[in-house]
Amino acid sequence: MAITAVDKFSELENRIARTIELVKTTREEKDAASRELALALKRIGELERENEDLKRERELVKNKVESMLDNLSELTEGTLV
Questions:
Q1: Cα dihedral angle (34, 39, 42, 44), rounded to 10 degrees?
Q2: HSE of 79 in the Cβ direction (CA atoms, 13 Å)?
Q3: Is the pLDDT of residue 81 over 60?
Q4: % of the chain exceeding 90 in pLDDT
Q5: b vs e for 49-71, b when ≥16 Cβ sit within 10 Å of the residue's Cβ?
Q6: CA atoms of 13 and 51, how far apart (whole Å)
Q7: What is the rounded radius of gyration, in angstroms, for the C-alpha atoms of the chain?
Q8: For position 31, what pLDDT does the model report?
Q9: Degrees to nearest 5, angle at CA 51 with 47 and 56
Q10: Selection from 19, 39, 17, 38 nearest residue 27 by Cα
Q11: Can you give the pLDDT at residue 71?
Q12: Given a cut of 70, is residue 39 above it in pLDDT?
């Protein structure tokens, strides 16, 4: 059975239609990935700021504890002398 020009043209139309659908799907997936990336980058920025805040808070607490330990040390030295 010979393939006619109409059959070849129909097959070409089908391939073009599948290609168009593939391009549409790929673009949608790319857009979704771009939105997801933007959200992830925003969250990373938030977490980095939170991390810096926690580091500053930790440093403050550390300094206060060291100060209290120094005061306790002075008190205990004063009572031993």
A1: -100
A2: 5
A3: no
A4: 84
A5: eeeeeeeeeeeeeeeeeeeeeee
A6: 56
A7: 34
A8: 98
A9: 150
A10: 19
A11: 92
A12: yes
Residue 25 CA to residue 35 CA, distance in Å, equals 15
What pLDDT score was predicted for residue 76?
Answer: 85
Query: Can you give the pLDDT at residue 80?
Result: 59
The C-alpha atoms of residue 10 and residue 4 are separated, in whole angstroms, by 10
Q: How far apart are CA 25 and CA 23, in angstroms?
A: 5
Please report the DSSP string for the chain in residue order.
-PPPHHHHHHHHHHHHHHHHHHHHHHHHHHHHHHHHHHHHHHHHHHHHHHHHHHHHHHHHHHHHHHHHHHHHHHHHHHHH-
Residue with the larger pLDDT of the pair 79 and 29: 29
Matching residue, tokens 């330990």: 69
